[in-house]
Amino acid sequence: MEKAVVFNVMRYSIHDGPGIRTTVFFKGCPMSCVWCHNPESISRQPQNVFNSQKCINCGYCGQVNGAAATDEAAAAPVATSGKNCPTGARETIGYEISCLDLMKEINKDRLFYEQSGGGVTFSGGEPFYQDKFLLTILESCREDYINTAIDTSGFCDTASIMEAAKLANYFLYDVKFIDSEKHEKYCGVSNEIVLKNLHCLSETKTNLLIRIPVIPAVNDDIPEMTAIFQFIKDFKNITSVHLLPYHNIHVGKYRKIGKQYELSEISNDESQNMKEIKNMFETKFKTRIGG
Hints:
By secondary structure, the chain is an alpha/beta fold. Helices cover 30% and strands 22% of the residues. The strands form two sheets. It has a nine-stranded mixed sheet with strand order 5-1-2-6-7-8-9-10-11. Strand 9, helix 8 (222-232) and strand 10 (238-245) form a beta-alpha-beta unit.
């Protein structure tokens, strides 16, 4: 049976598409955005992690693995799943799930979907990194008359994204740069396929919700935002544009998985250009600040 690796199924989500939604977070992403809010999603494999702030030195880790409980460097290779850790200092991020079992989870909230016009959103990571499973679960949701949305970076196979466009009701599409060199510098890959796929989706009947992270000193300059606006301004199926302010409350996630956060020097304040950026996009689209 086809399975996917996910790391969270979040209920009662109100920021990932219309209505009340269940958001399924897939593990694995081919990009490496330096501001990524879910760094635990980048690796496709389940990860054993260690949070020293929760550790009480009970010695359980040492009994099972011969590893020192306070040794953060030992987090990655430790075999303990974290299920029996009394404080949750050690945990495993990510698990396999079948389409059948995931549909059972999704259907638990059907009443909320029907009352609010919501549904399920597939996020990540990058859901198209596990595109075969994604297309299967989209078809299952369609058969059960469940509204679906896909939160994607657009860095994926064009054939897969166009097949998904026949099944999904919404795409929450991230646009970070038009400048390809900047995209490669800050996201690890070129944006050629990202822009190509967005253009292809603009010619379909699926609803597009454009999400733009506005990162001070990275992409919040007016020329870059103007280039994004010019690229999308004639797309007819864009329902709204969300400008996502930068924040750094996710820094602790990097420590937990043993990575260094690269934008620690950037202020947590909203971009000084946000009002001007919003005014520009409002000339063509329903625009708001926030998810």
